[in-house]
Fold each of these.
Amino acid sequence: MDTDVIVIGAGGGGAVVAKELGQAGRKVILLEAGPWYGNSKWPNPNAESGAVSSNRYEDLSIDLLKKSFTDLEDDMNNSFYGKFRWGPANRELAPWPRNIEKGGFVWQNSGVGGTTLQYFTNSPRAFPISVDDVWPITYQELIPYYEKVESTLPVSTAPTTPKENIFYYGAKNAGWNEIEGKDVTQPGYRSQPNAILPPYLLLENKEFDPKGSEPIGCTLRGHCVNGCHIGRTIDGVAKRSTMASYIPLALATGNVEVRPNAFAVKIITEEDQDRKQKAVGVIYRNTWSGEFVELRANVIVMSGGAIETPRLWLNSQLPENPWVGKGLVNHWFDSVSGIFDEDDLMNILGVPEIRPYVGQNAAARFDYPGLGVVETYGISPGLYSSLVYGISGKGYSFLNPTNSQVPWDIEGMVVGEQLKEFMRNYPRTLSALIFTDDQVDQRNSVTLDPELKDENGFIPVVNYHPSVEDQEKREKLAWIAADIMRKAGAKIVIRSNWPPELYIHMTSTMRLGYVTDLNCEALQVNHLYIADNSVLYNGIGGPNPTLTTQALATRTAEKILQKYFNGM
Amino acid sequence: MEPYYSIETFKAFVNGVIPRTPFLAEQYGSIYYFGALDYDTNQYVMMMLDYYYYYRYADFIANLMNSYAKQLFIYDNNFSNVTRVIGNAYFASLSLVDQLRVASYLNAIDIYVTPDSKDIQRYPGLLSIIASLNRYTMMGYYSEWYGYGVTRLYEPNQRVFEFKPDSWLQVGYPGKSFTYVNYVRQYESAQELASSNK
Ligand SMILES: Cc1cc2nc3c(=O)[nH]c(=O)nc-3n(C[C@H](O)[C@H](O)[C@H](O)COP(=O)(O)OP(=O)(O)OC[C@H]3O[C@@H](n4cnc5c(N)ncnc54)[C@H](O)[C@@H]3O)c2cc1C
């Protein structure tokens, strides 16, 4: 036995299990397919293989993180060769391929921190009505785990800058109330509960002292999605990706060894006395050397995310189960934007611009249990233009003029002179995402391509077709968002109308109760657990999924200790 | 080296998405004249397609766009207002609007049948490239990419950021920043003032 537990994937879910088990005294090896930014054992993480593993808090280096995270969006977020991409650390190699339907793009990232490296950190709880009498466990049962994650990350309330203020103003004018509390049962707007350290400098009216030692928190500089490096230490970094939150805590226990550049390609199983399968080990491939390594442990936890976890199950030829890879939910996103006049902004805000590049990337939200979510976002202009004007399921807006029955002026991709005119108004544009409360459907799936392989096995095929009801909910949310824009004073309203194949909130491909038991242990394979977005029973009603995944992962660590380590 | 029609096709495409705009320049200042062709965005798009898929896609995609454009020349009278085609660059000879029509058409069909597409048909996911070309063009134009100067086509680890691209001037983006705390402080006081004046 090489260790007590192997966790596969150091992203939103895996890092949480590793920290919880390490704190309970268990020895953990955490395998991560991608690079590790901000660790002195990998001084050039994208160019040289570096060491095999790190298990010391002292290895963390904020200076290296600042070197890697350049605040430049093509460098960080180019989907082919960016530092945040689904691919190996070595940027001279191609990204790992996936088979996605047309127009499709899966926004996921390999690396210590996983997709939380670029996530916006919004950490709302599930809508209670989407859990109670729906999930096989109750909302009440999740609450203590929510509380634990909320205090560990920690979660606080997002600060307000012009782009949030104009949204609240519009929502209020549209007749919505402000939501209080964390358990949301009524529609309304609120400041995001998010995992970014508050802007201490602003709150305490201080200037930055480069020689000081107190935490500085968020500086409102708007680079969340391109990788936050604001802080004096890695565990003091303002944005609480698991790279900055759970991973340092895991290392500090002295019990967790993290191996980046390690792609798990097979779960090894044996039959136990009752002729049931049990997981006994993992084979991984070093992404630099191509070497295969076998490790054995008492318990294995799969945390590769909603696409890779079913892929690994299938590539390992684990027992058949009609729900493995099935039930994919994606919140079928959309984006609605409003362009404002300077004078109106001056009257409402006291400043002539919204400046989408100022403040936290997505700091205001509107929740509607039963329908979904509207959430503001503002990011750097390359990503911004590609998302707002460069992706649509409706094609080019000029080929598809709107009529007076809809509350938006433009629908679809915007190009040509109009694109340049709209982008000239970038500082006066407010944008909002829509997350639909889409329902689980067994036909929506992650399967294996029957022919195409990469070095890690058959590649995943991702397939998602929302239902008519999903579409109706999304339509209602788009109307609400457009109305908020108008009531805030927008002169032009643009609906991007994204295709279903833009994947950002993928969940529920290894569902609790179908693929796993109520403790998140695989029904057909003992000693094998799941702790990532894939195990969520459904899309939790539309709220951003990571906090719920992390709460469940905290609970799963407890269950693992109870069953396999005498509760310790 | 890519064939002539390939280079011309991508030039035409990026020019359709982000053209030169003399009218905007007249209204808002000369910086608004410049478009994708002035900042080599076609090279960005071709680089993405060539070096970061398993297959050299740039040529393949250009060929598709071009052969569909050619069919339009032959069969569709709506497109017959163009008469001169140089070096087989059919796509590039269409009007901007017609080029985007070709792109939307190719984006809407599921399987492309061209003589050399055998490899590709086994990989339908990658046929989404045409839909992605718009996104790539915008990323190439509005991100920092042009600012890598002479290193812009190097491997990503070898690039050196030299200057802010003009597109940032066109959109009022100041580039990377360390803090907006002071700006938000000023804003908060401006807001108090605005509400006390009401
Ligand atoms: C731009 C953006 C903004 C977002 N904002 C928010 C937000 O505000 N709030 C929110 O809740 N969610 C947000 N999300 C979604 C969020 O990132 C995910 O919900 C979350 O990261 C999922 O956690 P996970 O553990 O399931 O997967 P991931 O975080 O993707 O982690 C999986 C990890 O496993 C590794 N891995 C996969 N397969 C293997 C293997 N075989 N061997 C070894 N390692 C493997 C991967 O490299 C990765 O590091 C956002 C996403 C994006 C793209």
Amino acid sequence: MSWIDIGHIDDVPLRGARLVKTEVGCVAIFRTDEAEVFAASNTCPHRQGPLSEGIVHGQKVTCPLHNWVFDLNTGEAQGADEGRITTYPVRLEDGRILLDGEAVSTRSAA
Amino acid sequence: MQKLVVIGAGMASGRLLEQLIDADPGAFEITLFNAEPRGNYNRIMLSPVLSGEKSFEEIVTHDDDWYATNKVTCRFGEKVLSVDTARKVVVGEKGEVAYDKLVFGTGSSAFIIPCPGHDLPGVVAFRDLEDTTAMTEAAAKPGARAVVIGGGLLGLEAAAALRLRGMEVTVLHIASHLMERQLDPAAGYLLKKDLERRGITVLLEASTKEIVGNGKAEQVNLADGTELPCDIVCMAVGIRPAVKLAQNSGIACGRAIKVDAQMRTETPDVYAVGECVEFEGNLFGLVAPLYDQAKVLAKTLLGQEETFAMRELSTKLKVTGCDLFSAGDFADGPGREDIVYRDPARGIYKRLVIEEDKLVGAVMYGDTADGNWFFGLIKDGTDISEMRETLIFGPSYQGGASVDPLSAVAALPPEAEICGCNGVCKGDIVAAIEAGATDLGAIKATTKASASCGTCTGLVEQVLSVTLGDEFVLPTAQPVCGCTDLPHEDVRRLIKAQELKSQEAVWQELGWKSRNGCHVCRPAINFYLLADWPLDYTDDPQSRFVNERNHANIQKDGTYSVMPRMWGGMTSPQELIAIAQAAEKYGATVKVTGGQRIDLLGVKKEDLPAIWYDLNEAGMVSGHAYTKGLRTVKTCVGSDWCRFGTQDSTGLGIKLEKKLWGSWTPHKVKLAVSGCPRNCAEATCKDVGIICVDSGYQVSVAGAAGMDVKETERLVDVRTEEEAIEWTTAFIQLYREHAKYLDRPYKWVAKVGLDWVKEVLADDAERQALVERFDISQSVYQKDPWAERAEPEAARRFQPLADLTLKAAE
Ligand SMILES: Cc1cc2nc3c(=O)[nH]c(=O)nc-3n(C[C@H](O)[C@H](O)[C@H](O)COP(=O)(O)OP(=O)(O)OC[C@H]3O[C@@H](n4cnc5c(N)ncnc54)[C@H](O)[C@@H]3O)c2cc1C
Ligand code: HEM
Ligand code: SF4
Ligand code: FES
């Protein structure tokens, strides 16, 4: 893995998200708690809703377009809906958000 | 005999001496220095000494006898000035001592914020007996006031102790909840509540600017302008390892004195123990690991093998009645799952954090009896998959215990208001039940509770159920969402009755089953709180749907539409030019809407702050076409132009829009004003529609023109424009205060009945009070969201956090 510093945790609102543009498309960084972040594809598999604009609750996000709910740990859609978003390794170090550069550069390496 | 010199008679070195002397009383000739003019005492018990629950004598661990019996040469009240490791001597204030082995046990000193006035007399830390005595003396003055800076363990123990001594105490804490390093926000909320119940004032997100006074601390000033007069200031914002002496003596230090797992420093024959050490990058602040260190160092000094290892720590607060416990890691990283349990009636909150079938963290408030059991599971890494379902109920779980959905109502005090219309408290209803009322009808008849708008019906039924037990069968109401068993109406009433003013408070006091709600309840609760407590609650953008957060309508392709306000449907050549220019600049499609204004469609999120800025410059503000709030006020040209016009319908529309814009409502609200009954503005299918007639204004409400189509119903006929505005505003405020989130006015009116609405609004005093409350809310919320977000700092949030495609190209 190659960790890339993409910003400070406080740049992402609590229970909110921000976008990172990458070679594999837009990746959303979700902040679910004071010191808890997840990274996943920004694009809803249903009709491409921007997940970074959804309501973040627990360790889940609800798509702003038609309310599909995704578990950010697994990327799986919850309940009756079927679909999955790609999740990416991300971690926190001294308040900095580190995203795995390999996972978001070439799909084959991930 | 070897000569052992120990610097610092603290808790760690005290334990070391005990271990050493126990194992081999004749091994060393010991000299003990201490800067404090006394021997070792149980520092952690300074809190009960400060509160007066214990005397200092009771917490002394080693008295003069002990030192004499064990032949320890005491040099108390004497600071060590330097150490010469080449000559192996320690230089005290009163002379040198040679050593064969040397131990640093210098502990920590309190960190003092270097703000102006920090060095005034009356500013103390909370570290030693001198600090404790200074605070006790200040508390002796009747009516004395203390400001405690720091809402961590130490600060809160100081605050609680000073309060017990009768002082007026204010705690200032920089973070958004107390003890943020040990507690999550929910537990922090309960702790704050418990402290406030004791009469301690807690100010969160409080940043100290300066301490001022004439020769002594007399007042603390905060960055936000708050002024807090006081007699003493206690700073408890953290500790710093006391390592200056070691550093000056050439001993290797990082943030503290570096030691290996045998407590050896990098200098031969020099050791360190306690809070002054750094081990593998870790610092220490609680005694448990220090005692482990002391044990290891005793062995090392005696030439035996022993290794120090880090272990999990748990935290408790030594304030009687504030029962909290936290252990492990509870707010970190992916792959984790929560189990949450809340019992509002008993003020209990428990949260367990599980990762890969193991318990990794636990936070508890109110009932910590199982704390050590959970702590054991964390330390041992026990596989909990078998007991996962019942884990939160603890080791004594017998099966069957579950959260009682009625507990929120059971927890209400008798004076809590259940029926807002008729001012009926829980106690009144319970009294009626005890006097023989056994169903809703009887309660209505005897107390009038739920006899007016009826939104409190669910709560009255719950009081019946709680009081009568099995004799009353509760009708099932539709809960808000899976996070709670309560329906909207009950949540709204309880927010008012219990004065719940934060989302944390709602989740805890109403027994939410999730950590922080879901996409269904969050926007509803956020609205209820801001509508009921405009001055106390701060709107939470993260609890809003995307359109209300970004102040633009998201379209199906992820772009946004932007719609400036056109007051009463009027515009000007200048506005039109600015709109046309913006449309060209940002590539927008232009649409004339059904709400008498112009929509710019297809704007990219990144461009929003810029287009808003451009439209702001031309004098336009957000049209709120995306909100559950006031949308438009449609008008016809009225008496200004039309030969049929009876009144200035355009003018009234503009006045209404200027008064009402920016307010949040349970659902969208649309108005129209027509200048005569020909009704060109189609006012009779709006939420509020006004038809002008010769004799004045016909105000009608609760129309619909969506999936349902419904004509408005007449609310009142009034003579003047002022009255029309007053009635309209009062109607909207009543709707804001009572309706369920996402009920349009026509749905709400159908539930509560137009007669009830008329009855409330017909009361002059009540109508004016509603308008007043609306105005208070507008003082907070009537501001242009575009202007705020076009500011560079806020605009930044609309850009991606990072662009890794650029990096790769470089
Ligand atoms: C009010 C209070 C409540 C606490 N409550 C808890 C609790 O509930 N649980 C818990 O685990 N921990 C608690 N702690 C923390 C705990 O007290 C410390 O972790 C512990 O005392 C540290 O022990 P130590 O021996 O390293 O240092 P100390 O006990 O601070 O001893 C160091 C000694 O070295 C002396 N010294 C320093 N420099 C020199 C020098 N140059 N020459 C001579 N002498 C010197 C100092 O005067 C001091 O007496 C509390 C602390 C305080 C102040
Ligand atoms: C996501 C769904 C919807 C979108 C994007 C949308 C968009 C719009 C827009 C942009 C306008 C112009 C409003 C203005 O000038 O402020 C409008 C007007 C209107 N909308 Fe919607 N709308 C939606 C859903 C609805 C629903 C559910 C209803 C009915 C309940 C509704 C009823 C109306 C009516 C009646 C008007 C005309 C208002 C008037 O003439 O005064 N819309 N809509
Ligand atoms: S509603 Fe009446 S006053 Fe207004 S434009 Fe139509 S006809 Fe004229
Ligand atoms: S696009 Fe996400 S739920 Fe439809």
